[in-house]
Amino acid sequence: MIRFPLLRGLAAAVLCCGAITHGAALAQQAFPSKPIHLVVPFAPGGSSDVLARLLAKEIEPKLGQPVLVENRAGAGGSVAAGHVAKAPADGHTILLVAAGHAGMGALYDKLPFDPVADFAPVIGLTTAPVVVVVNAQSRYKTMQDLVAAARAEPGKLNCAGGGGGATVTNLAFELLKSELKLSITAVPYKGSAPALTALIGGEIDCDSDATASALPFVQAGKLRALAVSTDKRIDLLPDTPTVAETVLPGFNVSIWTGLLAPKGTPAPVVDRLYREFNAAMALPQVQEKLKAMASSSMGADSASFGRFLASETERWGGVIRQLGLKP
User: Is the CB of residue 133 less than 8 Å from the CB of residue 173?
Assistant: First the structure.
């Protein structure tokens, strides 16, 4: 009997490749087959939660399934991230992440997941500046005034960093202090709202906070904005200079948001999620809301966002370790 092992091998390989291609196509066609859970690592009402609900409303008709926003606040975002990391890798459970996700691995010693390796990047959504604010009645009129006062009387100034801990609002101020070699007493608060309330009440001297959180009080005349953290001024505060313009050339820090899926989520599913969220981000009503929140579109696809997340993780992990920050 004549045998054809090579031909049989080639046939098997062709069938295998066909099965893989067919499987990928099925994954794309079948998705989504049930409601999508969009997990937010913050309590309801914050800017990230508002963004999640806005986008969920826009993409539901396109996906043909409900998009349920699920708030899982706690432990600097690690509660939500841990939940999504162990979810089935089918695209039906996804995570909205903010910039603090990049510092999670350095801040917590024994996370049951890797903040980068255990996720599939989907899309980079938004960026926004941090703003340094003082009470409207403060004697500090400029960023230079604040820095000069900190140098003249080390340790006397009391300042908050938004939500404290590994939030980028806090890390940005800690980085600024470190680069300028300033001694400013950090006052921890459990979020932007209590920090801003304390600043308005005269309990502290300054706050480094999300622009979206501080802006209403600046516009109401209760706070004065001294500088924004990005490399360019923003439209909503055109007369407020950047940190780079005033006291530290080259300084550039942004708050950002993006979406992650569990590691192993099929590429066609990730691509479908990217396309739908990217289209939603371009809608006029979404852009209008982003502008009101002092945010702009990041516009990063899954590959670009993956590289960005790795870079931010290295950057903020280094800052956290250098400063010895703990949860």
Answer: no
Select from 246, 272, 305 the last residue of a domain. 246
Domain identity same for 38 and 117:
yes
- Digit-coded pLDDT (tens) for 255-303: 999 999 999 999 999 999 999 999 999 999 999 999 998 999 998 999 9
Paired sense of beta strands 36-40 and 158-160, if any: unpaired
Q: Are 192 and 100 in contact (CB under 8 A)?
A: no
- Taking alpha carbons only, the member of 259, 208, 206 closest to residue 97 is 259
- Among 202, 163, 209, which residue's Cα sits nearest to residue 42? 163
Residues 44 and 97 in one domain: yes
Tens digit of pLDDT for each residue in 223-263?
A: 999 999 999 999 999 999 999 999 999 999 999 999 999 99
pTM for the whole structure: 0.82
For 235, the domain range is 129-246
Residues 266 and 223 in one domain: no
Angle at CA 174, nearest 5°, toward 105 and 77?
Answer: 35
Q: Which of 195, 225, 246 is the last residue of a domain?
A: 246
**Residue (of 320, 289, 295) closest to 126 by Cα position:** 295
What are the backbone dihedrals phi and psi of residue 83, each rounded to the nearest 5 degrees, phi first? -65, -45
